[in-house]
């Protein structure tokens, strides 16, 4: 996939859809924190 160079965060949903958003938007920052927190918990469990 050849994507343009932009300042964006890409989320891939469980259904395989790609969602792009600007990284400075509040909900994007909150979702990133949520994902990082879940990843850290998962790493501790393993």
Description:
This protein has 46 residues and is an alpha+beta fold. The protein has one domain. The protein has one helix at residues 26-45, and strands spanning 9-12, 18-21. A hairpin with a 5-residue loop joins strand 1 and strand 2. The longest helix is centred in the C-terminal third of the chain and has 20 residues, at 26-45. It is extended and about 35 Å long. One of its GO terms (cellular component) is extracellular space. Keywords: Cytokine. One of its GO terms (molecular function) is chemokine activity.
Helix content: 40-55%
Describe the global form. extended
Strand residue percentage: 15-25%
Mean pLDDT: 90
Count of alpha and pi helical runs: 1
Structural class call reads alpha+beta
Rg computed from alpha carbons, rounded to a whole number of angstroms? 13 Å
The topology string of helices and strands comes to: EEH
Beta strand count? 2
Unreliably modeled segments: none
**Widest beta sheet: strand line-up:** 1-2
- Biggest sheet features: 2 strands, antiparallel
Question: How many discrete structural domains?
Answer: 1
Straight-line distance between termini:
33 Å
From the structure above, extract its key features.
1 helix; extended; alpha+beta; about 45 residues
Give a quick precis of the structure.
GO terms for molecular function: chemokine activity. It comes from Hymenochirus boettgeri (Congo dwarf clawed frog). The protein has one helix at residues 26-45; strands at residues 9-12, 18-21.
């Amino acid at each position: 996939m050849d994507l343009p160079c932009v300042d964006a965060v890409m989320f891939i949903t469980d259904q395989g859809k790609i969602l792009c958003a600007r990284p400075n938007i509040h909900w994007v920052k909150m979702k990133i924190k949520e994902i990082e927190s879940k990843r850290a918990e998962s790493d501790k469990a393993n």
